Amino acid sequence: MSENIKQIRVALRNCGFINPESIDEYIAADGYEALGRVLTEKTPEEATKEIIDSGLRGRGGGGFPTGVKWDIARKVESDQKYVVCNADEGDPGAFMDRSILEGDPHSVIEAMAINGYCIGADKGLVYIRAEYPLAIERLKTALDQAREYGLLGEDIFGTGFNFDIEIRYGAGAFVCGEETALINSMEGHRGEPTFKPPFPAQSGYLGKPTNVNNVETFANIPVIFNKGAEWFASIGTEKSTGTKVFALAGKINNVGLIEVPMGTTLREVIFEIGGGIKDGKKFKSVQTGGPSGGCLTEKHLDTPIDFDNLLESGSMMGSGGMIVMDEDDCMVSVARFYLDFTVEESCGKCTPCRVGNKRLYELLDIISKGNGSNNDLDKLRNLGEVIIDTSLCGLGQTSPNPVLSTMDNFWDEYLAHVEDQRCPAGQCKDLIRYEVIEENCVGCTACARNCPVNCISGERKEIHHIDQSLCIKCGACFEKCRFNAISVS
Amino acid sequence: MAKVKSLADLKKMKEKLQSDISLRENSKHPEGMVRVKVAMATCGIASGAKDVMEFFTVNLQKRNVDAIVTQTGCMGYCYAEPTVEVKLPGQEPVVYGFVDIKKADEIIEKYIKQGEPVDGIIPVNYETIDKK
Ligand SMILES: Cc1cc2nc3c(=O)[nH]c(=O)nc-3n(C[C@H](O)[C@H](O)[C@H](O)COP(=O)(O)O)c2cc1C
Ligand code: SF4
Ligand code: SF4
Ligand code: SF4
């Protein structure tokens, strides 16, 4: 690979290249050839082995080896099995799966059919959130085209293999991305997780063996057959093969969708591909893994990104959201933001998650208002650990991660809030004050004209004053003053 | 449309499709065509890609340029949407970022009609599976 090119497009091989509404363009780009070859040249066992050999691990968060999962579902005896594509994509800031479905829907359809052949299923279901109308529309068009060409339906490639796919809509609950909750939701029940085992591969949709994989996981499958398991395994690291798609967001210059080999460092992603931090500010932290993940810092920048390294650093791969933060971001606020999300999205089935996360949120709220004590910091940590240990599903088992990782990596910032009632990043509204620096004020009135609550008074060419009892700390005056006459403290 | 009944069918179809495309895009004249792809995923559309695509479609025809305008998915440069790829016959494709109507007009008049470079090109920053 050449010096400055860090990306390689495997899952995104067609995204942005072909017309997603044209099956002909997909076929011209080797589309459906993998399905044809698998059906005519390989037994289900051989095809599954190819996936095992590729080392592909699930891209939906857990990183479970895909081939092994298929093998388990393949070996379970049943009159009916199902293939499910998880397109719920609930992490805030993530849009990898949406982009794949909008840009290359046939790759997912082809992979689901291959999966059906491998495990012995003739029916596939795509669970997609209703907030993705364009992805749904393109997927529907693609399904119609595949049926028209005989690539879905009966006797595919003249081999006697039947397979078809239906779409199921989710209402956009984060917890419905968890596979057991997803299956409950597809069956028309409440979207609540259930205890595992039994795993979906044993008893899933309608009690039948079901293989659930993520959109991006599926998008990799056809390439593995077209280029070979060995080729795939040659990309990435030993234990995490292939590539990962990330949605780069936050305070970074090149916000966008990227795909890098596993083992690329955070530094390469943020500073080379991402073009560094916006407005020349200083890098502070990067959040990976969404509400289940953690915040990594400067010292992790040279860690090669793979499933195991991220876990070891106190975060996780998650589905691929990557939010970059700069010196102006307060880590206590960031933790509180994720907790707020979790409290909103917890299904409420089990107490540690339903009540525990609410208490965690309240503690963070107290701290960010400057009313916390050292005792509260201890409570935060203990409670977080208990929630991890005792929650029923992955949501609760990971929800304290943003809190614990920011405590580990930004302890000083927590201490500043608690001991000095100070927010070093100047973000926590209750801990900051905007004041006019009288020596610098020339009375230009810019601040007063821009204050949304009209709490700045002063005549033209005279020193202005802020009425602290009315100020909502929006920062408008600070931004508008060209004379450095407003201070934040 | 004929059904694909075997792997051989699919391969035949693929060869035909591929040669159609390369005929269209690579031979200079008379079939040589300009190909414009507009990234029309949610991110692109939100930044105005629909209007840009419409502008290319209408104006290339009006100005007598033999071209096909198609939509495609997200090219990954969400910070620079709308993004548009332009491929002149027999040349490597180039991707432009931040393409509004004014830029689109410049691309048609300068790059497509006269082959003159227009700034705003996003350099290729990835490898494809065929190269790796
Ligand atoms: C709270 C929670 C949310 C999840 N959300 C998603 C999701 O949006 N998309 C997804 O593919 N997997 C999600 N998962 C993981 C799924 O349970 C499941 O492991 C995954 O779909 C399996 O596919 P994979 O092996 O291809 O990754 C979530 C898990 C949890 C605990
Ligand atoms: S951990 Fe939370 S989301 Fe999961 S089952 Fe318990 S209450 Fe529901
Ligand atoms: S904008 Fe600055 S200089 Fe002008 S009146 Fe306000 S504080 Fe004074
Ligand atoms: S921070 Fe906002 S509300 Fe407060 S004085 Fe300045 S402009 Fe007015």
Features:
heterodimer; A: 489 residues; alpha/beta; Rossmann fold; Ubiquitin-like (UB roll); de novo design (two linked rop proteins); 4 domains; five-stranded mixed sheet; elongated; B: 132 residues; alpha+beta; Glutaredoxin; 40% helix; globular; binds flavin mononucleotide; binds iron/sulfur cluster
Report on this structure.
- The complex is a heterodimer of chains A (489) and B (132).
- By secondary structure, chain A is an alpha/beta fold.
- Chain A folds into four domains: 23-232, Rossmann fold (3-Layer(aba) Sandwich), CATH 3.40.50.11540; 243-326, Ubiquitin-like (UB roll), CATH 3.10.20.600; 338-419, NADH-ubiquinone oxidoreductase 51kDa subunit, iron-sulphur binding domain (de novo design (two linked rop proteins)), CATH 1.20.1440; 433-488, 2-Layer Sandwich (Alpha-Beta Plaits), CATH 3.30.70.20.
- Helices cover 40% and strands 15% of the residues of chain A.
- In chain A, helix 2 runs parallel beside helix 6 (105-119) and helix 5 packs parallel to helix 7.
- In chain A, 56% of the residues are buried.
- With 132 residues, chain B is α+β, with helices and mostly antiparallel strands.
- Chain B has a single domain (30-132), classed as 3-Layer(aba) Sandwich (Glutaredoxin).
- Chain B is 40% helix and 18% strand.
- Chain B is built from four helices and six strands, in the order H-E-H-H-E-E-E-H-E-E.
- A five-stranded mixed beta sheet of chain B has the order 2-1-3-4-5, with helices on one face.
- The longest helix of chain B is centred in the N-terminal third of the chain and has 20 residues, at 7-26.
- At the A-B interface, strand 1, helix 1, helix 2, helix 5 and helix 7 of A face helix 1, helix 2, strand 2 and strand 6 of B.
- The complex binds flavin mononucleotide (FMN) and iron/sulfur cluster (3 copies).
- One iron/sulfur cluster binds next to helix 14 and helix 16 of chain A.
